[in-house]
Amino acid sequence: MLTLIFALSGMLITLWLSPPTKIWATLTAQISALLLISTIILNTPNNYHSINSFLLNDNISSPLIILSFWLIPVSALASTGHLQNNSTSNTRLFLALTLLILIFLCITFSAANLLVFFIGFESTLIPTLFLISRWGMNQERIEAGYYFVFYTIISSLPLLLGLIAIYNNQNHLSIPLFNFNSNLQNTPILSLLCLIAFLVKVPIFGLHLWLPKAHVEAPIAGSMILAAILLKMGGYGFIRLIFIFNEPFNIILNSILVPFCCWGGALTSLICITQVDLKSLIAYSSVSHMSFMIAGISLLSNWSITGGIIIMIAHGIVSSALFCLANIFYERTNSRTLTVNRGLKTLILTLPLLWLIFACANLGLPPFPNAIGELLIFSSITAHNLSNFIPIIMGILFTGIFSLIIYQSLNSGSLFKWNILNITLVEREYLMLTLHLLPLILLITSPSLMSS
C-alpha cells in the first residue's frame, strides 16, 4: 500500500516537470501502470493483509481502492474539453488536485488506525473544495462550496470528539484490534457522535442538502469523483465503526435508522421525478440509493454488508457514467435541462443505447451488479421488519419512473428548436464510456468477484 502512495506522490512531481505537450500522455501511462500494480497487490483472499500500525487492506477496502484508481483518471479525461481554454499551469493544478484526492482516498480506505482514517477522510475536503469553487459551472459554485464545507466540518467535529472518547476508553484506535476484541463501553450519544459524519457524507435523506448543490455546480471531474468515490467514504467508515459498538446500541439503531432511511430513500426517488435539471436528478438518485444502502448495513448481517459493498462499487461505476453522459449533452447544448436536450436519437444512435444500459443499471435490473446488491439488502431489510416492505416497493417504483423519464425525455420527441445538429461523439468520449462499461461487463460475466 505504501508503494502505491509513494508512487502517486512521485506522479505529482512528474506532473509539474513534464513538458506541456506531454502532460496527458505521461499521466495516462503512469496511472495505467499503477492501476495494474494496484490490482495485483490488492487481490488478496485473506481477511487482512499487509497490516502495520497505520495501513492495511482487506476485502472491504481493496475494491474501493481499485475503483478509485479506475475512475479518477476517467474523470480527468472527461475534463479535457473543460480545460481546453485553461493555461498550462491551471491544467497542472487541476490534475494535481485530482491526484491529491486519489492519495487521500488511498490513505482513507487503507487506514488501520481510526486517527489516520480521520485525517484522510477530512483531507479530501480541501482539493474537492478547490475543484468546485475554482472550476465550477456558475457563480453559485461559491455557495455550493460553503454548503459542502459547512456540512462536512460541522459533522466531523463530533466524530473527532467521539474518537477522543474511544481512545480514552480503550487506549488505542486500531481497527483490527476492535474487530478481534471490542469491549468498548459506549453510550448512544458517543455512538451517534461517531456515526453522524458518515451519514452526512453518504448522505442519507435529511442530511443531503449539500449534495445537489455541489453536484450541479462542480465541474464534471468533481461530480464524477464525488458521486463515484467520495460518497463511498461515508459507507466505508460506517461499516468500520458500527462493529465496535455494543449490541444494545445496534438494536436501537436498527429500530430508528432502518425505517428512516427506507422512507427517506422512497421520498428521494419521488423528488427525482420532479427534477428538470439532469445533474440534480442524478444527484438525488444517489441519495436514494445510499439511503437504502445505509439501511441495509445497519442490520449488520452478512447479506446486508455484502449487498452494501456491492451497491457501493456498482453505484460508483453507474453514477459516474450517468454524469459523464450528462456532460456530453452539456458540452454541446450548454444546458442540463431535460427539455432542451430532447430528441437526440434522431441524430446519433449510440447515445440512446448507452443511456438505456446505464439507466437500467441504475434501476437495478438483472443482470447488472446493482440488482444483486439491492436483492441482498432488500431481503435483509424485509426479514428484519416486514413493514419496511412498503417504502422499498415505493422506492423501486419511483426509481423505475424517473429512469423512464430520463430515457424518454432525452431520446424521444422532436429536437428542441435551437438545438445543434452536430452531436457526433469524439474518440475521447467513446473511450470514457467504454471504460465505464468494461467493469460492469466484468462484474456481470464474473459474479464470483463480488462473492469474494
TrEMBL record:
<feature type="transmembrane region" description="Helical">
    <location>
        <begin position="389"/>
        <end position="410"/>
    </location>
</feature>
<feature type="domain" description="NADH:ubiquinone oxidoreductase chain 4 N-terminal">
    <location>
        <begin position="1"/>
        <end position="108"/>
    </location>
</feature>
<comment type="function">
    <text>Core subunit of the mitochondrial membrane respiratory chain NADH dehydrogenase (Complex I) which catalyzes electron transfer from NADH through the respiratory chain, using ubiquinone as an electron acceptor. Essential for the catalytic activity and assembly of complex I.</text>
</comment>
<feature type="transmembrane region" description="Helical">
    <location>
        <begin position="60"/>
        <end position="81"/>
    </location>
</feature>
<keyword id="KW-0496">Mitochondrion</keyword>
<dbReference type="GO" id="GO:0003954">
    <property type="term" value="F:NADH dehydrogenase activity"/>
</dbReference>
<dbReference type="Pfam" id="PF00361">
    <property type="entry name" value="Proton_antipo_M"/>
</dbReference>
<dbReference type="Pfam" id="PF01059">
    <property type="entry name" value="Oxidored_q5_N"/>
</dbReference>
<comment type="similarity">
    <text>Belongs to the complex I subunit 4 family.</text>
</comment>
<keyword id="KW-0472">Membrane</keyword>
<feature type="transmembrane region" description="Helical">
    <location>
        <begin position="93"/>
        <end position="110"/>
    </location>
</feature>
<dbReference type="InterPro" id="IPR003918">
    <property type="entry name" value="NADH_UbQ_OxRdtase"/>
</dbReference>
<feature type="transmembrane region" description="Helical">
    <location>
        <begin position="281"/>
        <end position="299"/>
    </location>
</feature>
<keyword id="KW-0813">Transport</keyword>
<keyword id="KW-0249">Electron transport</keyword>
<feature type="transmembrane region" description="Helical">
    <location>
        <begin position="305"/>
        <end position="326"/>
    </location>
</feature>
<feature type="domain" description="NADH:quinone oxidoreductase/Mrp antiporter transmembrane">
    <location>
        <begin position="111"/>
        <end position="398"/>
    </location>
</feature>
<dbReference type="GO" id="GO:0048039">
    <property type="term" value="F:ubiquinone binding"/>
</dbReference>
<dbReference type="GO" id="GO:0042773">
    <property type="term" value="P:ATP synthesis coupled electron transport"/>
</dbReference>
<dbReference type="GO" id="GO:0008137">
    <property type="term" value="F:NADH dehydrogenase (ubiquinone) activity"/>
</dbReference>
<feature type="transmembrane region" description="Helical">
    <location>
        <begin position="144"/>
        <end position="167"/>
    </location>
</feature>
<dbReference type="InterPro" id="IPR001750">
    <property type="entry name" value="ND/Mrp_TM"/>
</dbReference>
<feature type="transmembrane region" description="Helical">
    <location>
        <begin position="347"/>
        <end position="369"/>
    </location>
</feature>
<protein>
    <recommendedName>
        <fullName>NADH-ubiquinone oxidoreductase chain 4</fullName>
        <ecNumber>7.1.1.2</ecNumber>
    </recommendedName>
</protein>
<keyword id="KW-0679">Respiratory chain</keyword>
<feature type="transmembrane region" description="Helical">
    <location>
        <begin position="430"/>
        <end position="450"/>
    </location>
</feature>
<feature type="transmembrane region" description="Helical">
    <location>
        <begin position="187"/>
        <end position="211"/>
    </location>
</feature>
<keyword id="KW-1278">Translocase</keyword>
<keyword id="KW-0520">NAD</keyword>
<keyword id="KW-0812">Transmembrane</keyword>
<feature type="transmembrane region" description="Helical">
    <location>
        <begin position="251"/>
        <end position="274"/>
    </location>
</feature>
<keyword id="KW-1133">Transmembrane helix</keyword>
<dbReference type="InterPro" id="IPR000260">
    <property type="entry name" value="NADH4_N"/>
</dbReference>
<keyword id="KW-0830">Ubiquinone</keyword>
<dbReference type="InterPro" id="IPR010227">
    <property type="entry name" value="NADH_Q_OxRdtase_chainM/4"/>
</dbReference>
<feature type="transmembrane region" description="Helical">
    <location>
        <begin position="223"/>
        <end position="245"/>
    </location>
</feature>
<dbReference type="GO" id="GO:0015990">
    <property type="term" value="P:electron transport coupled proton transport"/>
</dbReference>
<dbReference type="GO" id="GO:0031966">
    <property type="term" value="C:mitochondrial membrane"/>
</dbReference>
